[in-house]
Amino acid sequence: MAISLYLKGGLPAKAAQVIISHPGTYDNTLLDSIAAALSKAGLHERCGDLYQHLGRAQEALQSFKRGHAYRKAVELARQISPASVVTLEEEWGDWLASQKQMDAAINHFIEAGSTLKAIEAAIAARQFTKAAGIVDFLEPAKAQPYYRRMGQHYEEANNRQEAERYMLRAGAPMDAVEMWMRAGNWEAAQKVARGYLSEDELHQFYSKRARSCEANRQWQDAENAYVAGKRYVYTRHTLQASPAAALALADIWQECCVGSADQQKL
């Protein structure tokens, strides 16, 4: 009697609680009516509880999923359908991510073996150490874009040493060089350039440095950059402003000529 009154009064959760709290034999039509009312009211988790109490496991599982009650869904799946647990973990992670709960989503993606989603969630949650730990399991080609993003993050956070480390792991030494140049740390930029750039990239690096110095009328620094980069064509302004640059160019030219002559003799 109470159950019917609860249903008529639009209180299906109360009706379900009576069924769960007082085990017995109930009319299937009544039970289906309660379940339908719970579902219609959006009380999917409560509907799942009812189905589980009645031993209707598959229906309970579907209701838990619809209600995003993934903890109960996973626990039930481990009993009745272990193979579906992985899929449920990924769905759980997807739902948490959709709710902007990125930190909570990470472990569920890991449990599901969804490595890329786990990395994206970790980066979105600014858990960069955790992201790096996951990225390390990827093939180098797949890992490099993520290392690059982490390098950008650490540069923005003014942690340039860490940024350099990730940029180098990303196979992007020029990014590290340009970062140090933006920060005005010429020595650090030069160290990375000499250690990791190709010969052509190294020439470009020193030429860029020289042009920047020229623009700021830092003639001696421009001269040093041209010499270091073995770029033997100085600008007119540099040669006019720095007699030492003209002498350095003459010495370099003589050295090149002597070297060429020696090679011809061989």
* Helix/strand structural class: mainly alpha
Uncertain regions spanning at least 5 consecutive residues: 232-237, 256-266
Helix content: over 70%
Major sheet description: none
**Average pLDDT reading:** 83
Global morphology? rod-shaped
Instruction: List the helices and strands in order.
Output: HHHHHHHHHHHHHHHHHH
Number of strands: 0
Radius of gyration: 34 Å
Query: Count the helices. How many?
Result: 18
Taken as a percent bin, the fraction of beta residues is under 5%
Q: Could you tell me how far the N terminus lies from the C terminus, measured between alpha carbons in angstroms?
A: 112 Å
Would you kindly provide a written description of the structure presented here, covering whatever features stand out?
By secondary structure, the chain is mainly α. 78% of the residues lie in helices and 0% in strands. It is built from 18 helices and no strands. α6 runs antiparallel to α7, α8 packs antiparallel against α9 and α12 runs antiparallel to α13. The longest helix is centred in the C-terminal third of the chain and has 23 residues. The C terminus is likely disordered.
